[in-house]
Amino acid sequence: MASVTLAGVTKTFSGLTVVHAVDLAIEEGEFMVLVGPSGCGKSTTLRMIAGLEETSGGTIRIGPRDVTRLEPRERNVAMVFQNYALYPHKTVAENLAFGLKMRGASKAQIHERVQRAAAMLKIEPLLARKPRQLSGGQMQRVALGRALVREPDIFLFDEPLSNLDAKMRVHMRDEIARLHREVGTAMIYVTHDQVEAMTLGDRICVMKDGVVQQVGRPLAVYDRPANRFVASFIGSPEMNFVDGVVAAREGRPVFQARALSVPLDGVRHAGLADGRALTLGIRPEHLERAEDGFRAEVVAVERMGAESVVLLDAGLPVRALIDRDDAVSRGDVIRLRAPPDRIHLFDQDGQALDA
Question: Rounded to two decimals, what is the model's pTM?
Fold first, then answer.
């Protein structure tokens, strides 16, 4: 097992910087997820760790070794891609063994590693099949097995589940988590899916425009987002954002936005100046029904099964997540409260106010 350390890692294409001075430390045995929208630099960062892209600046260390200028084969990493890249004319067993053969492993060593990986991934019955005889989920298991037999220092995953349907994605997500527990090797996983990031990662690294926005444990990032982008990207349904100002009412601070007024008593952010322009954020699941809350008219109800998403007009659009048995219909008027300990405040640059 090994750790991975990125210090000031930068990538520039034709004068355009797509990854900006990334500093990131992945501990031995850790599952780190790089998450962000398309084009945020997460896959490029992963490819630089693998050696498939040269760095334009900074250093990459795997364990004690500086691998910044080493060829991919010298880094002892294994990468699983979005496309399975299996050899169509080879059997599953031959696909699993191919990399080991190229490295000069003995027949006994190849057989032992292939059998162990097949057992771990439950693909023993598939060893004699060709890729065309496999389902998408089975091909993904073979791709995982091909990485596993190498016994690398680090596993790298580049959106490996994107080609699978929703049900199979959930199943393979569980398989990857189980594999991590059993193998114990550090894994770095790239995805645009914040649900995958939240459920798989020991920590997550949120990226935007090639810049690391926040690194932390999933629930810590969810509860205390560093900025408005992180707050909007992590969590579903998306956090509500309302632009307004701080006002004083009977000597008490309130957040005022058109007809919407939210008391700020007890909000963890102190020293809010009267008239300061801010953005208030509140997650739909944190809004509570309360008689002393703000007034909102139900515009639409999206039945999700166990819960319902309610689109409301409170002088501006707001979403709330409610229990399925909480009967509301279009045109109903309800009152909602934003608990002080659930309110997020952002400055005009989108940065979260310090506690």
Answer: 0.91
Instruction: Determine contact, residues 95/146, Cβ cutoff 8 Å.
Output: yes
Asked whether residue 284 falls in the same domain as residue 155, the answer is no
Which CATH number belongs to the domain containing residue 42 in this structure? 3.40.50.300
Q: Are 263 and 318 in contact (CB under 8 A)?
A: no
**To which H or E segment does residue 320 belong?**
strand 317-323
Q: Is 284 left (phi over 0), alpha (psi -120 to 50) or beta?
A: alpha
- Model confidence over 180-201: pLDDT tens digits? 998 999 999 999 999 999 999 9
Percentage helix, strand, coil, to 5, in the chain? 30, 35, 35
Number of helices (H), then strands (E), in the chain:
8, 19
> 215 and 99: one domain?
yes
- 245 in the same domain as 163: no
Report d(CA 179, CA 101) in Å as an integer: 24
- For residue 72, which phi and psi values (nearest 5 degrees)? -55, -40
Q: Which of 6, 154, 165 is nearest to 80 (CA)?
A: 154
| Full domain range(s) for residue 321 | 240-346
Which tokens in the block code for residue 74? 């010298």
pLDDT for position 181:
93
Q: Please report the pLDDT score of residue 1 as a whole number.
A: 76
Structural element, H or E, at residue 246: strand 240-249
The tokens for 313 are: 């007009």
> Which pLDDT does position 355 carry in this prediction?
42
Asked if residue 26 belongs to a domain, the reply is yes
Q: Do 221 and 285 share a domain, yes or no? A: no
CA distance linking residue 272 with residue 255, whole number of Å: 10
- Name the domain count of the chain: 2
